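Notes from hallway chat w/ T.B., transcribed later so I don't forget. T.B. wanted the structure written out for a chain they're using in a teaching module, and asked if we could keep both sequence and structure tokens in one place. Agreed to drop them here.
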Amino acid sequence: MKHLITILFIFLTLPLTSFKGDKDLDTEKYLNFLAAIENTSTFNYFTVIKVKDLNTGITKEICAKGNFVSGALYRELKANYDENGRHRVEEFIKKRKDRYFEFKDKEALYNISFYDYDIKQLHKVRAKYDFNKVVQIIKKDKKFEVGLSDSEMKYFAQVLFNKGYMSGESDCFGGQLEYVDRTKINN
């Protein structure tokens, strides 16, 4: 009986554990995406989305803070910042498990830095830092933080996000990117 209770406990608490690389990566990224979008604190979480500019046909993977993504969606959907608009944007977001969006509104695209997003910079950051070591630190210590310039931070966050790890930055005390365990946040 004790063995059965132990197995039941493990089975019930398994979904509550932080991502360790053994879960479905797409599901983890979707859950991190939702957490970033729903976050309302001054400590903002980064998320990664795939965006197609309907004006040019160009598609990019973009890393942005969740509040910038939701702001872009309010613009694109021409939603008001009231209860109906919030509900409309939330429902739209929840249906995007692939995190793919198409934007025509140029202000929405500017809001997520679509035009400034530099894939070459992403490659430079990926080459500069040892992300396997970063992941090992996160797994071991359950925390990680690094001081980065604004020009590197979102690219660093993008690499982590695509490995299944969410990170964020305080808007009040910027410059420090921190790992965020989605299962331990209180929104």
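Follow-up for T.B.: The chain has eight helices and six strands. Might be a good example for the class.
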